Amino acid sequence: MTQHTNWDNVYEDAIRWIREAGQEIMASFRTSFNIDTKSNPNDLVTDIDKQTEKFFIEKIKEAYPSHRIMGEEGFGDNIEQLNGVIWFLDPIDGTMNFVHQQTNFAISIGIYEEGVGKLAFIYDVTKDELYHCKKGSGVFLNDEKIKPLKTTNLSESLLAINATWVTENHRIDPRTFSPLLKKIRGTRSYGSAAIELAYVAAGRLDGYVSLRLAPWDFAAGKMLIEEGGGICTTVDNKEIDLLDKNTIFAGTELFHTEVQKEYIQPALDQNYYLRTPSSR
Ligand code: IPD
Ligand code: CA
Ligand code: CA
Q1: Whole-model pTM?
Q2: Ligand 1 atom 1, closest CA
């Protein structure tokens, strides 16, 4: 049985901790930090990623001992089921930007109960932009409520996509999205999935696609987008599994529906390849 949670208290605490962590991250620019690599030479992690994750885990465990945490750096719990309250935490999303640019990175936290999104936060630290929502209360950017998402024609749309997915790669046939890029107004690539998903929720982008994201990358963004009236699924239009890596395709309702119908489904019908992130 799940214990009763006072979500207003969790909302306030999370915002306070996020702003505090943001200040610590900003202060880290005045010191030097270690940079390591993880799965490959481009998969970076710094002391600051680890410190920030530990900071949140300490706060959460002290205030909400029954809550569990799935954190990218592995200091949280080993989560195999969606029961109870789970915090999906990416302490720094966009570590490569953090290291190379000192901007365009975010703290991303999605809080779910029994697999249902309750609260979501994406904090673009250097811009001091906090995207947040509580289920049923709308999406906010700092103190401003975000207006309902526009219904833009494909020809006037902006899509966030990494160039990898329209060049030779082993996850998606490049012919799936390349015709779409000719149709839409433009593409963007910010190097932080969380910021890109937050931009869809805020109406700054019409869509976002990635072939390789983990639960801590998309848990908050998915909830923000759905709360704002958009759609977030796998690329082949299936429900996202919060316990696994997924392909992600997010957009306003119109963008998502049209692109599925006009571009993705026809590509799948022609047997263009599409591989899940767990497959090699
Ligand atoms: C990465 C960023 C990036 C996305 C990668 C993620 P990280 O997260 O979100 O935009 O393309 O797939 O792993 O490693 O910087 O937290
Ligand atoms: Ca990430
Ligand atoms: Ca990260």
Answers
A1: 0.96
A2: 94
Choose one of 121, 145, 169: the last residue of a domain. 145
Backbone phi and psi for residue 123, each to the nearest 5 degrees, phi listed first? -115, 110
Number of other CB atoms surrounding residue 206 within 10 Å: 29
Q: Beta partners for 139?
A: 133
pLDDT tens for the chain, 280 residues long, are 456 899 999 999 999 999 999 999 999 988 877 888 888 888 878 899 999 999 999 999 999 999 999 999 999 999 999 999 999 999 999 999 999 999 999 999 999 999 999 999 999 999 999 999 999 999 999 999 999 888 889 999 999 999 999 999 999 999 999 999 999 999 999 999 999 999 999 999 999 999 999 999 999 999 999 999 999 999 999 999 999 999 999 999 999 999 999 999 999 999 999 998 876 5
**Residue ranges making up the domain that contains 251:** 154-269
Q: Separation of 43 CA from ligand 3 center, angstroms? A: 9
Residue 196, helix vs strand vs coil: helix
**From ligand 2's centre to the CA of 5, what distance in Å?**
27
Cα 234 to middle of ligand 1, angstroms: 17
* CA dist., res. 150 & res. 161, Å (int): 20
Q: What share of the chain is helix, strand, coil (3-state, %, to 5)?
A: 35, 25, 40
- Name the domain count of the chain: 2
Ligand 1 within 6 A of 73 CB?
A: no
Final residue in a domain of this structure, among 76, 111, 145: 145
Mark whether 139 and 171 lie in a shared domain: no
184 and 221 share one domain:
yes
Q: Is the CB of 210 under 6 A from ligand 1?
A: yes
User: Are both 51 and 34 inside the same structural domain?
Assistant: yes
Ligand 1 pocket residue status of 212, Cβ below 6 Å: yes
